[in-house]
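If your schedule permits, I should be very grateful for your opinion on a structural question. Thank you for your consideration; the sequence and its tokens are set out here:

===
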Amino acid sequence: MSSVVIVGAGQAGADTAAALRGRGFSGRIALVGEEEALPYRRPPLSKGYLGGTVDAGDLELLPASSYADQGIDLVLGDRAARIDPEERSVVLDSGTRLSYDRLVLATGARPRRLPVPGADLDGVMTLRGLADAAALREALRGTLREGGHLLVVGGGFVGLELAATARGMGLEATVVEVGPRLMARALSPGMSEHLRAEHLRQGVRVLLRREVAALRGDASGHVRVAELDGGERVQADLVVFGVGVRPGAELAAAAGLEVGDGILVDRWLRTSDPAIHAIGDCARFPSARYSRAVAPGVGAERLRPGPLRRRGDLRGSGAVRGRSVVLDGAVRDQAADRGDHRRARPRGDRGGPLRWPLLGAVLPRGAAAGRRVG
């Protein structure tokens, strides 16, 4: 094997490239990202970056020189348009064709938008990438200057972080959650109530068991009011949807790979094409515990930091979605299959293929054991 192409220059993709080099792979590695920015951490986008305490440069996983030093070719600002499995190549928007022996899809996920009237008004936003965060930061500052009100739709991680950040800036904020409690998928009822009480204490209005029925704008086409089920109207000069994500499986589906709420992979993170792997938020891997393919982080405990973390608070849980989460997830899931979640931890840099499933499948046997191979 002489070349690996990784599509998706987020944390999963960047860490996979670094891990391949760290495990002795000496062939070509191309890391493809549609954003112009160097690979960066997403978790601070909804916190420090929006609040103005963190700059874009602080988010970078590694400086550009580190990729050059490791012989990792960065192809940024050029979206992967299609995969040609027969030719084993990826065609980019620019027309560039990258050949591969192994392809890793780390295409992440896209924010969901509610299909309600007014969802296309100015001032209705989502948050996923750096460009989203930069636009939202300016919108928050503008709304604050005008004495406006932020409406967050969704009481999950991102929504609550946005509301807390907005209150820290002095902006009025309301959270609308369709469920009976906040973060119901991740927290116990007691913790949900504690979180709700803390947000109320900070001045965030929290509306549970409520849905947004429509968004209404002014004459200029800017959102101003949200109509809830039951007829209540809530001021909404800026609206952010935090209602989950949709796996980025379009590229895989167009190439004929098996998909189902994400790219379906086996325990080695191989897709239905054995030369193509998928990791991170775009992947769905088998779980004996749940008897179905699951997303990274389902049922996960926090994992100890692994050996490839370079900067920042990369904790690798399903919530933070840091690092190559599915690499950890597959290891965790094998422990889950044995019914022992306490043993579901990364085991450092000593392990073979079972500890690093994707690397064990992608690398030749000698490299998977930590020896350098050509």
